[in-house]
Amino acid sequence: MDYSDPDAFTLPYQLTKQIRRDVYPLLEPTQPELSANGKTVLITGVSGGIGKIIAESWATAGASGIVITGRNIDVLESIATRLQSLAPLGTKVLAQAADITNEASVASLFTAAKEAVGKVDVLINSAGSLEGGPVGTTDPTKFFNDFQVNVLGTYLMTHYFLAQGDGTGTIISFTTAAIGNVFPGMGGYTASKLALVRIMENLHVEQPNMRVFLLMPGIVQTGMTVDSLKPYAKDSPSLSGSWTLFLSTPRAEWMRGGIVSVNWDIEEMEAHKDEIVRDDLLGRAFLNAKLGKDGHPWT
């Protein structure tokens, strides 16, 4: 790999020839096709990371109700004020601090959300943890914090989202291209994201009326970005915000249950939609070997 190439950690994970790093016309939040009017959304991880920008995208797109959560209420309230300035008159915004790894806290969050905006239509699981450290020598509590946030936290949010009752809605959970390789020092993070992918794959099959998507945000400069990847952090967080809007529309219906990346060009994907669906190109691979009744075709 040529580490001097700014695309060194993006090109290996490209489905499309066109690399997207920022919002383009199709994904402008002001596009009528991306209108969130009439939709309510709950976004986790808003007091840090890319959650704030995602919330701004939904406000710009005119969501009827926006619930933002994180651990820092002061930051959340400041963001809520910003959202009200971006959103149309009448948009309801709730800022509620919560610990997504604590079931009672999550239950209270959904109770407050129902009172403030009614049923939540779209759940965006953008909260995440990347503690870092080698397998075996990292303190167990630190190592498994990634599982607490990325797996347990996402599961609890999903559980209470489904508990709203009618079995419909959209769930967008963030994963990472790093699950496709081995990155020393990121074992807890990538393992937890692999577990998250499998949970969402099961949810897609078990809840056929629930729209489930897994989104890779590219490499964005946030507090979670490891030092070695900072030179490659060229992706705008606004691109993730726009993608969540797109995934909540009927145009993304054929991508349900799959893993998609903000770096992939949507129109190029649509041009090859039949092949992508036929060959399950958005599904997670199992092994590089070709498995079957006759075994791998050895050379």
Automatic annotation (TrEMBL):
Gene3D superfamilies: NAD(P)-binding Rossmann-like Domain
Molecular function GO labels: oxidoreductase activity
Keyword terms, alphabetized: Oxidoreductase
Membrane-crossing residue ranges in chain numbering: none
Keyword Membrane: no
Organism for this UniProt entry: Fusarium oxysporum f. sp. pisi HDV247
Family: Belongs to the short-chain dehydrogenases/reductases (SDR) family.
InterPro entries: KR_dom, NAD(P)-bd_dom_sf, SDR_fam
Source species taxonomy: Eukaryota, Fungi, Dikarya, Ascomycota, Pezizomycotina
Domain Ketoreductase span(s) in chain numbering: 39-242
Taxonomy, superkingdom: Eukaryota
Stated name of the protein: Ketoreductase domain-containing protein
Alphabetized SMART domains for the sequence: PKS_KR
Keyword NADP on entry: no
